[in-house]
Amino acid sequence: MNQYPPIADHGMVGDLQTAALVSSAGTVDWWCTPRFDSPSLFASLLDSERGGHCRLAAELDDGGMTVRQLYLSDTAILVTRFMAPGGVGEVADFMVPVESSAATDRHTLLRVVRVVRGSLPFAFACRPRFDYGRAPHSLSLADDHSAVLRGPGTDLHVRTSGDVDLQADGDDVTARFTLSAGQVAAFVLTSTAGGGAVPPAPSLEEVAGELEHCRAFWLSWLRSCTYRGRWQDMVNRSAITLKLLTYAPSGAPIAAATMGLPEQVGGERNWDYRYTWIRDASLSVRSLIDLGFQAEAHSFRRWLRDRIEAGRTASGDPLQIMYRVDGEPHLTEEILDHLEGYQGSRPVRAGNAAADQLQLDIYGEAAQALIVGSDTGALRGWKSLSGVLDWLCDHWDRPDEGIWETRGGRQNFTYSRLMTWVAFDRGIRAAIYTSRPADIERWTEARNAVFQQIVERGWHDKRQAFVQHFDTDVLDASLLLMPRVGFVSAHDPDWLSTLDAMNEELVSDSLVYRYDPAASPDGLRGSEGTFNLCSFLYVEALARSGRLAQARYAFDKMLTYANHVGLFAEEIGPSGEQLGNFPQAFTHLALVTAAMALDEELGRQGVEPGAGDHLHMTVRGLTIRPGPRGG
């Protein structure tokens, strides 16, 4: 089997239409262009031999080198530092955000290398493999500083600045060079639709200008952030990550930058997450609204209304659960048999067959996205929402596949009912508040019927808890959202007993499983790690329920699972490794809401930031407090 870096051993750069992952070894081993959901140029994360990569790193024959990676503060500029006895150098990777609202087929990844002390030898190798490694390519060297690698429908231009010459290596391109203190070189990789002229190599001054422009963009964008709490750095990094995962031309956020990364190494739970889920996107936008980013919310609402107004789906529903970033509904799933998969995790899937599933919870998330913080009196928005709610009155009482997209058959999932209750509740409130026409009596009747069904059939007397669906006693961490959406008070005895049951069954050292696949078969082989979204939802639920010391301790521990640059994948494995697609929007939006909930609840208790309240925790009824200071 080929060799693979840990999933967490990466930072992400992007230009708001596409994104690339760069390992701490200096290798770009994931980049799809011209869009997040386009076929890959570099995909060595899924097959280190056939996938393609671009490596730029210091190279010493005798080893003895330390490598560190970081982001320039509050930006999406990733810096990989190489420290050796003979010198210290660094590579800055970035993509200048495409600020135009128009989609473009031209995207540029800049890799700037400099030495700050002594001297270091570097090696560069650009080995793209077009169309997920299925298509051949050709190489043309225009001169010592410019090359073009041509694949079907896509060209990759490689240009250098500084005293660096490119050399052909078969159909790939390489370079070797040494820099001394103060010297700089740059490699500029530009993807285009193909057939165009080779752009001229930029000067080092032009590259420096692009770097400063990128830095200025992110610092300016973050000025809109209203969060001033205890976890400013982590919240800022999560906000930037959510922004990087948003396709600017449409305003549609994707679930993650990658496809095929396993929830269990060697297993079959390997999905393509480069699409826009109504649920994930709505929750991502809600987090950005809470942080003060209104423009992103407006763009997504426009995209969501366009999906509703496009007409019914093939199944007759107003929405399907996910779309491509441009709103295209067809996401045919195919197996890429020629790829080995991350550490042999097969099958590698492109596309997502779950797009055809019925998941009724999306209508609650969509209603919240269209209403919360928006002008619900707008005629177009109200027409879109009211039409959906009229349809939902006739269709809410159906089994579905649920939030976790199980492939084991439809059930009457409690979470799906919960979010249909949210859809009716928010619609009724908006209609009354804005005096818009609506069949409020019918909506109210449906809302009350959903409520009764949840409390009567979603509650399990023996477990003394709300359960996953109406025909089981299995718990489900998605129900951690019950207090947040206002269905139940965070201090209600039934909710507290549900939280206690989850703590006993789904929580392992503050990490939370979605559910138990052994007790509730989901149609797939194997197991999975704890789910980061649920772990942060657990923190929020604890905080809102008054269990602040436990919440603070769980949150602090969760932050230790972030990677070296503050990013999270979907899950945490049994040894603390990150699993699943990376970075995951769900995880980062939940981090934001958990941090804000903790700040708010700590503020209510008069706890100042940094007051050390996290040192007080309760473990199985035993209260532990710090002892007196003394010598």
Description:
The chain has 631 residues and is an alpha+beta fold. It has two domains: 10-222, Distorted Sandwich (Beta-galactosidase, Chain A, domain 5); 232-624, Glycosyltransferase. The chain is 30% helix and 22% strand. It contains 13 helices and 30 strands. The strands form eight sheets. It has a 15-stranded antiparallel beta sheet that branches. The protein has a three-stranded antiparallel beta sheet with strand order 26-27-28. Helix 3 packs antiparallel against helix 13 and helix 8 (414-434) runs antiparallel to helix 9. Mean pLDDT is 92; it is low at 611-631.
Descriptors:
single chain; 631 residues; alpha+beta; Beta-galactosidase, Chain A, domain 5; Glycosyltransferase; 2 domains; 15-stranded antiparallel sheet; 3-stranded antiparallel sheet; 13 helices; 30% helix; 22% strand; globular; disordered C terminus
Largest sheet: 15 strands, antiparallel
CATH architecture assignment of the largest domain:
Alpha/alpha barrel
Low-confidence stretches: 611-631
Percent helix, as a range, is: 25-40%
First-residue to last-residue Cα separation: 56 Å
Overall morphology: globular
Radius of gyration, in angstroms, nearest whole number = 25 Å
CATH class of the largest domain: Mainly Alpha
The counted number of beta strands is 30
Tell me the structural class: alpha+beta
How many helix segments?
13
How big a fraction of the residues is strand?
Answer: 15-25%
| CATH T-level fold name of the largest domain | Glycosyltransferase
Mean pLDDT: 92
Tally of domains: 2
